[in-house]
Amino acid sequence: MSASDLMTARSHASANAYDPFEDTRGPVGHATHFDVERIPGSLAGEPARFRKTIKPGVGADLLPMIHRENLLLMDMATRGLRHVAQSLEFTRDSSDTPFVVTTLDAGPSLNLWRDYDFLAEDDRSGAEGHAARSFLTPVVLARLLRHLLLALREFHGAGFIHCDIHAGNVCLPFERHAGPVRSVRPLFEQLRLIDFGHTLSARLNFEEPMRLDPAATESLRRVSPAFRAALHRDAESGRADAVRALDFRLDLYALGALASQFLGSMDGSGEPRGAALHAAMSASVDALLAQDCGAAAPEPGLHDRLLRPIDALLASLGPLDDGWLLPRKRAAATRAEPARETPLVGARATPMAPPVAAPIPAPMAASIAPPIAVDAAQAAAPAAAAVVPRPTGRRSALIAALVASALAVWAWQEDHLQSIVSILARPAGEAPPASPARTANPKTAAAASRATASAPVLSAREVDDQLNAMIEGAASGNWRQVEAAAHRISESAGSDGSTSPLLASGREAIEQGDYGGAAATLRLATAKVPADWQAWSALGYAALRRNELDAAKSALNRSLQLHPQDASAWAHLGEILALQDNAGASTATLQLAVYFSTQRARTLAHLRAPAPTLIAPEFQAVIQDMGRALDQVPLRKP
Amino acid sequence: MSSRLTPPGDAVTPLARHRVVPAPRRSVADWLRQQWALARRPRIESGWASLCGTGHERNQDAVLAAMPLFAVADGVGGGSAGELASSQMLAWCRTIQPADWHRPEALAAKLGEADAALASALERLSPGGRSATTFVGVWLRRSGRGLVAHVGDSRVLQLRPRSGAWEATRLTADQTYANLGEVPPVGSRPDDPARMVGVGAIGEPSVTRLHLRENDWLLLCSDGFHRFMSEPTLAALCKSEASVPLHGLAHQLAQAAVQAGSRDDISVLLVRRNPSGGARASFWLALAASAIAALALLASPCGWPSDPAGDVPAPPPVSAPSAADGAAPLSPR
Question: Cys-Cys with A545: which of A289, A515, B94, B185 at CB 3.0–4.6 Å?
Fold first, then answer.
């Protein structure tokens, strides 16, 4: 490490610009409200030092939260906790803003790990037959869950409750291979918890209510019902009495939500016992999600009880392979899931940077975009303007030349000239045809092409008929019919799995409560990648929250045509149907939502969340009428 | 000029002057930056490393380095229970009031309560875990005076630089069955710890006084380290690597124990008392001289030539550099 390197303060504008496995000088963090930068001037051999500061433009109302976190970090630093990122100093900058200096020796967050695929080092030479796997294999998930439970046991034993466990707040360090190969090995036993802005302590009392937004979508995912109710009570009273009465089980629930999220994207390929492992992990996740703060005190040794089945599962797997892994960053379009921040009360009015997105050349956008009904207010939205800049002059010519070159190469290589001509010749407003399955994996591509060749191609009307058949099947309890119809749709017009780079921006806007901005961004996302069912689904949700029921229904219908197993689309469709006084169909779609949910316990908890909730009262009535019958919906085989 | 500059690394330790490796040529800016970094060092400095042994999946040692307490606990127990005992022991140390930090009798009495407190906490968190921990801790004042407390076979060594070699003095006596003259139970060895916290075997915690002079070092370690590193070897390693910052040196020492064959968890905590002046004196002296020279220049009446006709505008006033100019020095901690 040269002196000039040390003098260079490093910061990264976005998580996308940062590669923790390339950076040999330790990780740098990111958050919505904070910047983490390297402090220059360290001597060689000393641990790197970082400074965490509030981003410019973030309101000063967050300062009490920073003070609170500093106090907690000081308390934690004197307790020898293994799983807390070590903090060095607590001080203020020249503008009297407090900041934390930390070694941040924690490693990349789990969100960052999930942005990579990994190739076992043994497979490096033989590319044939060895595909890179996602980080979350069944064994990795089991190990993560075990070590997280042990970390929480220690953390809770020292009198702290984290209150904000999610993938962005858990860091997993790694060991770097000493040789020239860039391979790494995750150090599960050293994982670290970070971000104590909402942490409760048995010794430090705070009067101010917690800033966690209980009504945000993200809270509905990972905040337990009792915790959410306490947050609401505190918001009304202006004090922190209700949350201070809670216990550590709210962290266990959040851990269950995290594990449930991971379970949904677990990569079981090449795992002979995939189904059995999935079932075992599902049971552990359900046990975690069943934890919540109640009237009774938590039972002694609760962590150990939850650990036992995971330990047994790991023991049954035999010796674990701790080999070196070669990381490969995924393309932005195939990221597992966008990083989620903690939603804060009052943070919605915070001036945020416009969503960053790949610019779309105007002529190309016009040629591929179906007609979008954009009202005047949305058309004038600055965010939308930022997403699609209008290149002019020399820049346009350059972009046009680049696009033309790319198309020419594509046409030459893939003999797609006819497709290009048809796209360019298509009149504006005509929807593009469903694209054939595209995948980088030749084996998958071959399988997909075989499947497409053998499956009958359904017309749009026939796909809708199959969706109706799914609803009828759910209403009559004929789940075989549901599966058959879903299979036919998937075979005929299923999504190729491609996602738009704008999807993350749209989801972020939804989490901020900016449904108008989200709808505009997601319309562009669906225009750019019409086969992105997730974007259609999110667009439907945004339109639903804007009370644009017809637009919402249309978008959700498109999502289901592409991916009939989309549980959230079924749930939101159910809400629309309930709002349109079609309780019968709403009940059936609600059952479909539960049936296809990969995180049933969490879905049910979300649907049955007590008021205030974003769910329309009409749909709440439908849910209430269903009662425990929802629990009887059969489990779908993974 | 560069031959007169302080060699790279840790100039606070006098032994760094005896380095045989020739110092590379460094610029004045490098020297200033290094001096600034050294000037910012605290009076009591520490660095530690803790490695998981090959015999465990998780490290059962716990380390705490937060003034005034520097401590190492070595957990013992089946499964994952040992790690809980060691971390709970360190967390419990926070309950000791400042009034007891410097009175040996009071500290010993307080540590005597740790056994029941730890057993109760472990029963709540992990019932039936059957875990305990050895413990060594130093409550240190900035003056270098303090108390050393220990239970079991974790150790504290005091390293003192001498002219030719370093002198390593053991401040604790291992409370093993052999040393205490007790018969080990079936399945135990004579050199296993006979005293531990958490299972009713704490005995009389040993508390002794300590005086750490300037440039003295303390080394706290678990048995996974000291069983494989003799004191002369350790002193030689510390002497030869004194220029490495403590954090890095602690890692080197831990790795040396691994190479020597240790399969147990290894924890090494180094503490050093830096001199109040030491290598920093030259920096402060240079800074003061520069400030005096600048003031003298500003106060001198012949700073700018004046025009008798008065038709040449006066030069702009010299303003202090602001942070926005990027010329301001680094702000102190």
Answer: A515
